[in-house]
Amino acid sequence: MNDINETIGRQREYFGSGATRPVEFRREMLKALRTALERHEEELYAALYEDLHKGREEAFLTELSIVYQEISAHLRGVARWSRRRSVRPALQV
């Protein structure tokens, strides 16, 4: 359990450092995720078959294709979503 707490602490510290803020960093991490999924696709198919008895086609259609589509959508949108914009202050109640 201590290893988990240390890992979480390091991740929070890294996030707090601002290293993850640049859009290009986020895009590179999304690309790395897509590459990792592609590299381990056969293992994912095997696990989905073993756990859920899904064949390759079903596994792709109901699991992997959705993840690939989400990664593509985030690659397209992350720059727009990260733009600075002004917001009105909330009314005080």
UniProtKB/TrEMBL annotation:
Keyword Oxidoreductase attached:
yes
Swiss-Prot/TrEMBL GO biological process terms: aldehyde metabolic process
Q: Which Gene3D superfamilies match?
A: Aldehyde Dehydrogenase, Chain A, domain 1 (3.40.605.10)
Q: Which residues cross the membrane?
A: none
Gene Ontology CC annotation, any one: cytoplasm
Read off the lineage from the record: Bacteria, Pseudomonadati, Bacteroidota, Bacteroidia, Bacteroidales
Could you tell me the keywords of this UniProt record? Oxidoreductase
UniProt entry tagged with the keyword GTP-binding:
no
GO MF terms here are: aldehyde dehydrogenase (NAD+) activity
Name assigned to this protein: Aldehyde dehydrogenase
InterPro entries for this protein? Ald_DH/histidinol_DH (IPR016161), Ald_DH_N (IPR016162), Aldehyde_DH_NAD(P) (IPR012394)
User: Please, which domain of life does this record's source organism belong to?
Assistant: Bacteria
